[in-house]
Amino acid sequence: MTIEVSIKGKKDFFYLALEDRLIRAGVSIVDFPSHKTIKIGIDTDDDSDIMILPGSTANNRSRVTISIYDLLIPSGKNKWGSNVIYELLECIKNDNPPSFNAEEAYYWVNIRDAVEAIVMLLVSDIFKDINGHLHLCGRRAWFNDSLFEELEMLWSRYTNSINYSHTVESLSKIPNPVKENRINNRVRPDLDLLNKMMLRAGGDGWHPPTPLRTGLMELLAQNL
Known about the structure:
CATH superfamily: NAD(P)-binding Rossmann-like Domain
Distance between the termini: 44 Å
Largest sheet: 6 strands, parallel
Strand order of the largest sheet: 2-1-3-4-5-9
Number of domains: 1
Structural class: alpha/beta
Radius of gyration: 19 Å
Strand content: 15-25%
CATH topology: Rossmann fold
Number of strands: 10
């Protein structure tokens, strides 16, 4: 039987990505919900079966709440957490010194991985049994200075390519994102319930497959 959903919320980058993935999964999206329709709210005050929120935004009116932290959306600036990346990119493009807290950490997750996890849960046989608050973000902490080094390296490779100015050093220099003796003062959101539900849904748990470097390359490609 075809799953039927309605989506309420602002049609931003996240809304469109979720809508596209639902359609490709064979889900029917309707404007006027019936008693069998699964109601999805995206950062709204409407009553919903599943509410999807950015970061620590609070909403307790849904059976299932999914809070998404540090979402990397390559398409443009957004309210979901990746504005800091765009700010660093502007500094690099304009050759301006960056201003950031090097010890600040983020748990970046690509929008594709986040949407894939949500759709997997929604179309699974266990969705009707899911209750509570799920937190969704990347598993590994990235410090701002490591993120800046990644962006700087990718931008340098791009400009060297278009200017035919690559050298052996520029092609071989790869920043190491793992810093020794770093203390991460930001506790990662609890991924335990999300991981358990994805295991029950027939997956391998929550292991977002898209490397941050891939997401940053996509972001550069769409914001040159």
